[in-house]
Each structure stands twice: as C-alpha cells, then as structure tokens.
Amino acid sequence: MDTRENIMHVAKEMVQSHGYNALSFREIAKAIGVKSASIHYHFPTKGHLGAALAARYTEDAENFLGALQVEPAHLRETVKSYIAAFRAALLNDNRMCLCGIMVAERDDLPDNVRVEVDRFTDVNVKWLEILLRNVHPQMPRKEAASRALAIFSAIEGAQLIARGRGDVKVFDTVVAAYTDAGLLP
Questions:
Q1: In the CATH scheme, what is the code of domain 50-181?
Q2: pLDDT per residue as tens digits for the range 135-173
Q3: If both were cysteines, with which of 48, 72, 110, 170 could 43 make a disulfide (CB 3.0 to 4.6 Å apart)?
C-alpha cells in the first residue's frame, strides 16, 4: 500500500471511530511512520483529506448498491444486504458509517467535505427510491423519495444508537422493530 492509501486507510478508521473533528495529521503520520509534511503533500488541508475520504466512501457505496438486485423477487435478500453494510461498521470496533458520523459534525465541515457527505446521502436515498418504486410501481415518486429518506435516516439512526450503547444487538432490535412496523420493505 502506498503512502496516500495508508493515509486514507488510517484517516477513515480515525473518522469512523471519533469523527471528523478528531482527524489529526500528526496522529496519522505517527500511525504510518511518516512526518506530517508527508500527509500535507498528499492532502494540503484536513478539508482535502475529509473530502477525499467521503468521496471514496460514496464511490464504494455506489459500487456496492449497483451490485444489489432491486427486483421485487430479491427484495428480502437485497434489504438484508443493505442493512448488513451498516451493521458491519458496528462489528468493526463499534465504528460508524463514515458519512453518518461526519454529517453529525456538519457545522464543522468545510464546504468541500459537506458536498461529498451530502452526495453519500443522495446516493443512498436515490437507490432506496428505485428499490421502492420497483417493488411498488404505483407509488408516486414523491412518496417513494420521502419513504427512501425515512428508511435511510432510520438505519443511520439505529446505527448511531447501537454505537452509543456499544451493542450491535441494539441495531438488530431496532431494525427488527422498523421491519415489524412496516418502515423497512
């Protein structure tokens, strides 16, 4: 792994564990055994690094979502896979979705980071809207968009509460309650 990739890897873990405000070039440099100047060579500012992290995270999400089936016949497996992606972060040292934790710090984010974090939300909501409209073709577009946002918010919220409790079972319980209540397809 080259220096830039090492920086991205360590920074991603740092943000997922402690948020954007905890992102420290000095700590990243120490973790990968380089000087802070090496970090600045690849990412002139913390904002550049944060935007690169959120952009890559969103691209990874787009690839993941693009590989999921959105046909009604595969609905259960698709939703299960989607939810599992958020659950996986909790299983990885009780981390959060990178963009989910960053959005909680929105007021502190530089504009370029905010744009990328918003794009992550947009990608997820658009994909969920497509899923809903494939399962319920008669559903009006506005309703599908609202419901997609509610689903995305609910899953991010379940992850946040589970992380706060340090217990992935809380995530599972909340997701099951959402499903029983009809929020999740």
A1: 1.10.357.10
A2: 999 999 999 999 999 999 999 999 999 999 999 999 999
A3: 48
